[in-house]
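Hi W.,

Here's what went into the run:
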Amino acid sequence: MAAESARKFEALEAQAATLLDVFKRGGYEQVAPSIIQPADIFLDQIGEAIRGRTYVFNDLSGEELCLRPDLTVPVSRLYVERHPRADVEARYCYNGPAFRFQQKGASQTHPREFRQAGIECFGVADRNNADIEVVLLAFDAVRAAGLKEFRFRFGDIALFFALLDALSLPERWRLKLRHYFWRPFAFHALLSRLAKGESANCDGPAAELAATLPTQDGALAAETVATYLEANDLLLAGNRTLGEIAERLLDHAADLRAEPLPRDVATVIDYFLAVEASPREAIDRIAMIGKGAGIDLGPALYVITRRLDLLEECGVNIDAASFATEFGRDLEYYSGLVFQIEVGGDKTSPIAGGGRYDGLLRSVGAPAEVPAVGSAIHTERLLACVKGLA
Amino acid sequence: MAAKLIIAVPSKGRLKETTGALFERAGLALRKTGHERGYSGIMPELDGVEVAFLSAAEIVHQLKAGRVHVGLTGEDLIRDTLPDVDGTVQFLAPLGFGRADVVVAVPDCWVDVSRMADLEDVAAQFARVHGRRLRVATKYLNLTRRFFANAGVAGYRIVESVGATEGTPAAGTSELIVDITTTGTTLAANHLKVLEDGLILRSQAHLFAARGAEWTKGAMRLRDAIVERLAANSS
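Here's what came out:
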């Protein structure tokens, strides 16, 4: 890769100063977390997929480390370090390098080393207001850097979970669908399997054993499994407990007895996940889907309508934005609002992105769930756009 | 100019002994030059062949770099190490030894698990109960990633393991493993079972040619001579 020219360096530095200035005036304190991070947390949170695009290495002591692929996790760790009880509000901003291996080769829009400037807002209980605050500050920042036209695309992960909660489903299927949501391909396969009434694994020793288990009593079922293991000379070893093994067998037994997922429930889920429109229109469609299915999505939809109203009050042209129910399905730690700022219809190289991730802080050491929302700007892309449009 | 071809053969590990015997039977005995503990040698029967004694893993790297023309190593290592197998090496001949299956194995007390499709369900449950992903101990990072991705399993992470991988689930440092097995005895002794559809690769020792090496006419002639003699002696 060609060395970065001095001019580009100066331009990026000047742009970073502008962005940080907007963030700091918005009440965000500048922080600089470590570039080298424990690989564990990223691999545990984002999964093995991230290893394919992260520089992971072992140092001389054998510790597995990585060059941070983004700054959200490092800044979250910094918050928990400063506030181990995670019980205070904190607003941080940053500008610094992140590193991603580019499988198709590094390019102008997908460099392997790039700088992210962003904000993270922790511990603010009024989630809707915090969401709006972060979105507006991201808008202000890219505008201050000279970006005049952009498109706001967003979704809300919580809406899908609200739909699952409202639909009449056995709890074990609800849990499964929640998990598979993050694996779109497998999700679709699971949904059609449930609708056809097929069980994933309906033969073999598991089925026979499952059929003998007492269905109403988890503890007794675990005992039965223990007896079975002993009789078959199978040693219980490793981190999964008897209870966990028994639970899956019970689920399996329940699947065998259950009626298939009603076709119309599967259809509702499919229709819901296909919604992509301007926000008000999307809300109307989702409400109609809910009404048709005889379920109440009111509270979840109210949160989104309220968000739209607030954004509009702040001068955002909502009708020009785009809302998709599927949006944000690729990053497992999101839990609510997910958004990106795009230029020229390019969905794959957003200028900025962000969202709500209430579950992440607990997994980096906070004692409980902490409201968290943030946004990061891809500063090289922003600069390229501003120069191109200027 | 003297014809020259460099062939790399394993200097240690499970492939070493059989390799020596194989070449000897084919009338192509390998002889070390210089010190007995040294790493270079010749094939007295074939003028112009230089032998490099290297570890099986190092042979893959030398093939990739084109610093050796021909190399003998396991298909498992080739498939795991090289991002572009067919663009980097040519499969000259399977050698019929060093057979090992790369498989996905789980504790045999997991009576609720028999196929890859079960793993994602277990991953979901495990994340709910233990707050983290399933850990897969292996030295085959790329084979594992590709195979799991094709099977639609994503709720896991790899912990690298270079030795005694089969002991890690019982020790509690992993939940399952991807490893090689020949007879399954070691897996069974460690209370592990192979998933029904958990066969990733049937591996054996192969003779590979490096596409990136400098292939003079002489080198090609020597390559063909080696392959021919080996083929004539394998039944």
